[in-house]
Amino acid sequence: MGIFATRARRDAQAEAASDAEAALDVRQHLLPARFEAVGERLAASRDASAACAMVGREMARDGADLGEALDGLRTTHARVLGGEPDFRAVRALCVAWSEETLGYLHQLSCENPQTGLASLAHLRAGLSAVYRSAEQGGSSTSTGHALVVLDLPLLARSPAWEDAFEPTLRLVRVAESVRIAFPGGETIAEASPNRLVVLAQREDLLAQRVGLLRDLVKDLAPETGRARVWIEGLPAYNHGAGLLLDEIARG
């Protein structure tokens, strides 16, 4: 039993000495920030997958893009081993970076909890889904859907004397009016402080719904000021729809 214990201690000491030597050697290579642990594993001829995963998560949390993370991994391999990173290392880093990024995105709400309005990013995602569905079905997005834009300039202005919650209350009232006109679960998003956008189906009742929305918002005129409501046709391609949303948001 003592022989095996002694051998185990010797192996542990040898491994610790190897790690220490590798760490000293790595410091001489001037590796990219955060990649020191990866370099130490490589210098000790040990599997660096876990270290790569740790770096991927850290860089995602710090806001670094995947390209920057892969460049750091490639530089580390080149300086320590003089070659390219292997598949296991690349996969470990990419998977960890992706999982951390997706976890962060899933924590973001797709709607404003105070008003229930979707974010502009959520509307973009919904538009992309509409284009994908139309492409797969061989139909035209421009004839199947449209954007209904509601512009209320007063929503973007908040007098100094006004209660801090009053703009939000006005927006809630406007959002309720939009839902009365479009009660079918359409995506209703806040494109800018003074503009709301509805992703609606082009149907026979669309014009009537828009007319109803105009009347409902007109009843709120003392609170919201002069309002404009119009229909924007969708471009043939998703990229054009993104540019259209940008234009609406800037208006």
Write the layout of secondary structure elements.
Blueprint: H1 2-27, H2 36-43, H3 49-61, H4 66-80, H5 87-107, H6 120-137, H7 141-144, E1 145-151, H8 166-181, E2 187-192, E3 195-201, H9 206-218, H10 221-224, E4 228-233, H11 238-250
Antiparallel strand pairs: 1-3, 1-4, 2-3
Helix pairs in contact: 1-2, 2-4, 3-5, 4-5, 6-11, 8-9
Could you provide a short overview of the structure?
The protein has about 250 residues and is of the alpha+beta class. It has two domains: about 110 residues, no CATH class; about 130 residues, Alpha-Beta Plaits, CATH 3.30.70.
Which shape, going by the Cα principal axes? elongated
The CATH homology group name of the largest domain: Reverse transcriptase/Diguanylate cyclase domain
Radius of gyration: 28 Å
Any idea how many domains? 2
Number of helices, where a helix is a run of at least 4 consecutive DSSP H or I residues: 11
CATH structural architecture of the largest domain: 2-Layer Sandwich
Please characterize this protein's 3D structure:
It is a single chain. This protein is α+β, with helices and mostly antiparallel strands and 251 residues long. It has two domains: 2-107, no CATH class; 120-250, 2-Layer Sandwich (Alpha-Beta Plaits). It contains eleven helices and four strands, in the order αααααααβαββααβα. The chain has helices at 2-27, 36-43, 49-61, 66-80, 87-107, 120-137, 141-144, 166-181, 206-218, 221-224, 238-250; strands at residues 145-151, 187-192, 195-201, 228-233. The protein has a four-stranded antiparallel β-sheet, sandwiched between helices. Helix 1 crosses helix 2 (36-43). The longest helix has 26 residues, at 2-27. The radius of gyration is 28 Å and the shape is elongated. The termini are far apart. Mean pLDDT is 82; it is low at 1-5.
